[in-house]
């Protein structure tokens, strides 16, 4: 089992910045992939960005150039630096850990990000 704990959400004005963190604990194996997903009310959960344990990153088009995903493997911690936030970025942001063996996904409980106009 893997446990994920997110932090860093909150309320910010449009154009502002927030930094999300996710700490993974439990049965952590390498290689793996971690990522951020988000879900706004009435919408499906969507990918924001993912990063492999080797450092390869993938971003959704709507956050490219504004968000940066990173991780510290020694601390089993992943980050999402969000700049130039827009009201449409308002959502619950979820941390994801994917174990390649068996393709198993684990999810955090989510952290609310609210961007006011």
Which terms summarize this structure?
single chain; 117 residues; mainly beta; seven-stranded mixed β-sheet; four-stranded antiparallel β-sheet; 11 strands; 0% helix; globular
**Which structural class should the secondary elements be placed in?**
mainly beta
Question: Low-confidence stretches at least 5 residues in length (pLDDT < 50)?
Answer: none
**What proportion of the residues form beta strands (DSSP E)?**
over 45%
How many helices? The count is: 0
Describe the structure.
- The protein is an all-beta fold and 117 residues long.
- It has strands at residues 2-7, 10-13, 18-26, 32-39, 46-52, 57-59, 67-72, 77-82, 91-99, 104-107, 111-116.
- The strands form two sheets. Strands 2, 4, 5, 6, 9, 10 and 11 form a seven-stranded mixed sheet that branches.
- The termini are far apart.
């Amino acid at each position: 089992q893997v446990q994920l704990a997110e932090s860093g959400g909150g309320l910010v004005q449009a154009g502002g910045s927030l930094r999300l963190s996710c700490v993974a604990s439990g049965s952590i194996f390498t290689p793996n992939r971690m990522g951020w997903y988000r879900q706004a009310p009435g919408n499906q959960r969507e990918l924001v960005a993912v990063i492999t344990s080797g450092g390869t990153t993938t971003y959704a088009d709507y956050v490219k150039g504004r968000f940066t995903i990173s991780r510290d493997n020694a601390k089993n911690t992943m980050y999402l630096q969000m700049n130039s936030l827009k009201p449409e970025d308002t959502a619950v942001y979820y941390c994801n850990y994917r174990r390649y063996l068996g393709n198993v996904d684990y999810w955090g409980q989510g952290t609310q990000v609210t961007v006011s106009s």
